[in-house]
Amino acid sequence: MKKIVTVGEIVVEIMATETDQTFLQPGLWAGPFPSGAPAIFISQVARLGHPCGMISCVGADDFGCLNLERLQRDGVDVSAITISGDRPTGSAFVRYAQDGSRAFVFNIPHSASGQIGINAAAEALLAGADHFHVMGSTLFSKQMIDVVKIGIATIKKHGGTVSFDPNIRKEILDAPGMHAAMDFIFSQTDLFLPSGPELFLFAKSSDELAAVDEILGRGVAAVVVKKGSNGSVYYDRRASVAMPAFVVDEVDPTGAGDCFGAAFVTEWLRGANPAEALRFANAAGARAVMRNGPMEGASSRAEIDAWLVSAKVKPEALA
Length: 319
Ligand code: ATP
Ligand code: MG
What we know:
Elements lengths: L3 E4 L3 E6 L12 E7 L1 H11 L4 E8 L2 H13 L6 E4 L5 E7 L5 E6 L12 H8 L3 E5 L6 H16 L3 E5 L12 H10 L3 E2 L15 H10 L4 E5 L5 E4 L4 E4 L12 H14 L4 H16 L11 H8 L6 H4 L1
Parallel strand pairs: 1-4, 1-8, 2-6, 4-5, 8-9, 9-10, 10-11
Antiparallel strand pairs: 2-3, 6-7, 11-12, 12-13
Helix pairs in contact: 1-7, 7-8, 8-9
The chain binds adenosine-5'-triphosphate (ATP) and magnesium ion.
The site of magnesium ion has 4 residues, from loops.
């Protein structure tokens, strides 16, 4: 099986317990939960029984311990996750608004995540990998952008593939060099995984089909658009497939895109057809929103297969 590697931030997430809770006055918070978009992604890959590893850095503290133990338990190769001598593990506070939007306070570039680099263990992990996944949220500093570029170059040198989820967080969109880095990574992308409007980040058109044409014309092999409770759509140069979402009670939206992406990439690398891969990934995304906590809704292959037997797709999607 093709080994998947990702790189980036590992954080603890502290979540508001009430809708419209503010960061400006004391409230009740839940956590710490293990988190960080690339960490959620790789946890879900591992839970599917697929070989994978992560390049990252945590602090020598309980938050680092909690994350490392979790990833190890899931089956992630953590040999390239270092422990910082002088910086704490990163953190993200998140609050939810009535309209479903989220706002964050991140401590990432100045945390242990800011010390992520390519050491001998990371080189060894990359040398044994066939696929590299990049999250836009990881491009938070010049150093991280350089690390991502090394990862891509190493994987491409031995014929591997790259997937890219822009995963835009407005809080870090204006980090230095972020826009140029996004463009470069896009130019190296085989599988592009935007969420809703992120599809238009690299296209002039504001029409979905025309934007997809532009993107496929620029060398991307396949595009998968995540549409939350409206499911997902796959496009390549020969075909397109739309797959409705499953009916679930959404408890916490965080992590859906990461779990979806992990499931889709895993199935894509295993040679599943697009419809099968989308259905499986929709199930992974749906199950992610059913649980509180970013990584808590990641499922094993057996759990997803068992759940699919009685899962219902949204009725309006069938109309
Ligand atoms: P994230 O917040 O993790 O970045 P995202 O915006 O990248 O998420 P979404 O489109 O929200 O990704 O979710 C990914 C997939 O998960 C969807 O395409 C869908 O299959 C599933 N999903 C998400 N939310 C729901 C929901 N409320 N009901 C059913 N399925 C959902
Ligand atoms: Mg996302």
